[in-house]
Amino acid sequence: MRTERNPTRLDRVFARLDREPERPAHLSVPRASRHRTVLVVAALAFYLAIVWLVVTTSWLVRLDWQVMFFRPYQQWASIHWFVDYYVVLGQRGPTAVMVAAWLGWRSWRQHTLRPLLTLGTSLLLLNITVGAAKYGMGRLGPHYATVIGSNEMGLGGDIFPSGHTANAVVTWGILAYLASTPRARRWLSAISAVTSLGVGMATVYLGTHWLSDVLLGWVAGLLILLALPWFEPLIARTEDYAFDLRDRWRSRGGAKAPAPVTPVTAPARLKPLTAPQNETAAREATAPARGPRSPAYLSPGPHSARSERTPVTPAGSRRPPHPDRIVRGTASPATRPVTGG
User: Per the confidence metrics, is the pTM higher than 0.85?
Assistant: First the structure.
């Protein structure tokens, strides 16, 4: 006996995606609430505090040098190959392509440009803010440090804050930001946090970033995710403008314009039927419809008149017997043989 396989969780997910021909109405857009404003202010204060601790060559800079002299890539050399591959999750090119492919498919399924526009807005903010901070402070990395114990600021470097870490926070965190349900948002937030944390520690392991670079990169990426709701109105207007351009482009080279409809100036008046016409129409309406007459099929040969035909009844012919009538099949009297007695 053959039994059907029970659908798995992945089967239910794809079944749900298959029945989404239009933009779901239940998608919630994060709002710029008071709670989010408090988080933005707290993250910005933490950002400025890290910058101040590095500029003043405080205990954070000494911790950077201690981790650098520890040389994690030599202490745990067996995992070096894995870290080399794992750090790719923070590179701008590969991660942007992967996430853009997923969000592009989701935009096509839900008939909305919001996922792709949100990703583009977040990456634009990341390039502006992190890029300005990198080249503005000009800090050198551990491999290019010149003076032991110094903060290496203003020497033409570009590693403070960590671009790998900030990119991992934004790129993977945008999936949690665009999640359609609170449960999916919680799970994706946890996964993106662990992924970005691992990317940051991988750069410290490889010796390409100071520990303070990673801390500032986490906060820089978190600030972009927290500030995205303030850009939602701009994203919505851009989406409407893009759809308007698409409609105008379709109408410009689309179907022909319908012919103009001529308005009727005055209604047409109908003349009443006369009495004879009314009676004739009534008789034609009440008369039963006659079916087509079947053709008459006549037998071949000569035909006799009705007066010459002998009426036949079930009992036989009603014509009296004639003395000279000879029954068919018998001989005539003239030819009948005479027998002697």
Answer: no
